[in-house]
Write a structure and sequence with these properties.
The protein contains 20 helices and 15 strands. It is an alpha+beta fold. It is flat and about 105 Å long. About 35% of the residues are buried.
Length: about 625
């Protein structure tokens, strides 16, 4: 067998399209192959195409059998008749490769057939069609219990065309239609269709496949009807018993909910406890929402809203939210009163928790204020106060300064109307969010200088910059507005060194102000994030840390390899970033300079020659040179 003939097998192996099988013959003819070789290639092509057709037929039959199996599986677990019928229609459209598929059911009372499920249809008129028995293709199938197919519906005189049916079919743009009956015994209950918007011949196998799907659809409808009849009979039998149980259950539930709510109040439960208890007692879904619906009444009475019941949670004229009982429109008076009583208990719990929370927030704020303003206080008392709040002031902490990062003035720098009220509301929200964040992380928070100050512990792996970013993200999410956060360098033990707190807060404020100037809205950062500007802002001038962060990779590379990248950088900047002048200063070839700069770029990362970054690199080089000179003997 020649290489050209083997190529047909390769085409079969990779599932190439039909037109690709002509290529080996064309290539052989173009290369001057003889008649015998061309004839052999033609035979190989025909054989390969025949094998390809057989494989495609088998794949198609496997797909069809798989779809029928899936449909049978759907029927075995029938729960929703509409879902099963939609799946059958979708599979009919997919397997027959048509643009539209639909299913109609007979209406014995009206004496016609109507659309039940459509897939691929775009016309509302077509989806609402009703066909009289014997009218159109579908009416004829429904009347005769035989499948009908047409390549061009409007040119086919076998069907009784009516103005309504033709208008709907024309509106949908259908041309070729295949319809098969849905039968139960000898009774036709509907029709399953597959249709295209172009002329098309439906093969006998496709008609048989659609008929199999129609049989499954008929079984699904019959099964659903039997299930509905069974459920109806069971419901009738149980209804009388339910009425008897309901009357006694009402009294039991009223007593139970009274006991449960009393217990919740005594042990200081939360809103979620009330919701859980009420959901269990009322045998429904109860939710608390802090955004009551407009129908909510503030007088304590529950009101119906659609299928839900809503009871306001309020106290002293303040509306906290509402309890919503979902999906129980027919609520008896006893259960309604239970919902109202639960709303009243919820309001009492919210008031109690809010009072306790505000008291704890004030205590946390007072302790932080004492650390900042009165560092000479008794350190033992500071520790004891911190322990009661769950804070460990002997662990390393970071001071954070936060404020809302939303512009409140116009371009003329005159106050926008309502600015003062808005600023006050923003500060209150920021203080609440900061207090919550501090409480959840065993820290402290206080309102200060138009924003807030937080003292958060450094956990394993935490950094000052990382805590600043975390705080900015969580506070911004809570306020739904950008919040900027500046961080100080870590304070080893605030209880041991309370005098370090005020300078740390000042450093955090400077960092926060620098971020505003740099336009970094809604971010969190420490001095180490601000490059050389951080050297000016930080109380501790971490020169070595700045050099390491900026050019440490280059210095380390020189030490490992004995290379001269640091000097190359110095001469590169000294020569105005000119490779030609750099090579003269270093007495090397310009290609050597280019290779060194490429290596430097990989070590420093992209953008190292941008003006701001280049300035930091030059400053780090100078500081490194000064450190090396001082270290020299």
């Amino acid at each position: 067998m020649s290489q050209a003939q083997l190529s047909h097998l390769e085409l079969l192996a990779r599932g190439a399209p039909g037109e690709a099988y002509d290529r080996p013959v064309l290539l052989a003819r173009a290369s001057g192959a003889g008649p015998e070789e061309l004839a052999a290639l033609e035979r190989a092509k025909r054989l390969a195409l025949r094998v390809r057709a057989e494989l495609e037929g088998r794949r198609r039959r496997e797909t069809e059998l798989s779809a029928l199996f899936e449909t049978a599986h759907d029927l075995a677990g029938l729960r929703d008749l509409d879902a099963v019928l939609r799946a059958i229609v979708q599979r009919a459209r997919s397997l027959l490769g048509t643009e539209v598929a639909y299913l109609s059911l007979n209406d014995p009372a009206a004496g016609d057939t109507y659309m039940r499920v459509t897939e691929g249809s775009v016309s509302a008129r077509f989806q609402q069609l009703r066909l009289g028995m014997g009218e159109g293709l579908g009416g004829l199938v429904a009347q005769t219990a035989r499948p009908y197919v047409t390549e061009s519906y409007f040119d086919d005189e076998r069907f009784r065309h009516t103005r309504t049916i033709d208008a709907g079919v024309r509106d949908e743009g259908l041309v070729a239609i295949l319809g098969v009956p849905l039968t139960l015994g000898s009774q036709v209950i509907g029709v399953l269709f597959a249709a295209d918007r172009r002329a098309r011949v439906f093969e006998r196998e496709q008609t048989a496949l659609l008929g199999s799907l129609a049989a499954h659809a008929a079984v699904a409808i019959d099964t659903a009807n039997l299930l509905a009849e069974t459920r109806s009979a069971l419901a009738e039998l149980e209804r009388a018993n339910d009425i008897i149980r309901a009357h006694s259950g009402v009294i039991e539930r009223a007593s139970e909910v009274h006991d449960r709510l009393t217990e919740l109040v005594l042990r200081g439960g939360g809103v979620h406890d009330v919701v859980a208890a009420l959901s269990e007692v009322l045998d429904g879904t109860v939710e608390f929402t802090d955004r009551p619906r407009p129908v909510t009444r503030a007088d304590g009475h529950a009101v119906r809203h659609g299928d839900d019941w809503v009871a306001a949670v309020s106290a002293g004229g303040e509306l906290f939210g509402a309890l919503v009982l979902r999906g129980q429109p027919d609520l008896d008076p006893v259960d309604r009163r239970t919902l109202e009583r639960a709303a009243m208990v919820t309001s009492l719990l919210l008031l109690a928790h809010r009072s306790a929370g505000e008291a704890e927030q004030r205590v946390r704020g007072e302790l932080l204020d004492d650390l900042l303003d009165a560092p000479g206080r008794d350190r033992r008392l500071l520790r004891e106060r911190a322990v009661r709040l769950g804070a460990d002031l002997d662990a390393p902490h970071v001071v954070l300064a936060a404020r809302t990062d939303r512009p409140l003035r116009n371009t003329a720098d005159r106050p926008v109307p309502g600015t003062a009220d808005r600023e006050g509301a923003d500060r209150q929200r920021l203080w609440s969010a900061s207090s919550h964040l501090a409480a959840t992380r065993q820290g402290l928070a206080s309102a200060r200088d138009g924003g807030t100050v937080l003292l958060l512990p450094l956990g394993p792996g935490d950094t000052a910059a990382g805590l600043a970013r975390l705080a900015a993200g969580q506070l911004g999410a809570a306020l739904r507005d950008p919040v900027a956060v500046g961080a100080s360098a870590p304070v080893d033990a605030p209880a041991t060194r309370p005098e370090a707190m005020a300078p740390a807060y000042a450093e955090a404020r400077r960092c926060l102000d620098a971020m505003t100037v740099l336009g970094r809205r809604g971010e969190g950062a420490a001095a180490e994030d601000l490059g050389f500007l951080g050297l000016l802002l930080a109380d501790s001038r971490d020169i070595a840390g700045f050099v390491t962060r900026t050019i440490g990779q280059v210095i380390a590379y020189d030490r490992r390899r004995g290379s001269d990248l640091v000097r190359t950088l110095e001469e590169y900047f000294a020569s105005g970033m000119s490779p030609a002048r750099t090579k003269d200063a270093l007495h090397v070839h310009v290609n050597t300079v280019a290779q060194r700069l490429e290596r430097i770029g990989r070590l420093l990362g992209p953008g190292w020659q941008a003006p701001a970054r280049a300035l930091e690199v030059q400053l780090a080089l100078r500081l490194h040179a000064m450190s090396a000179a001082r270290a020299a003997p």
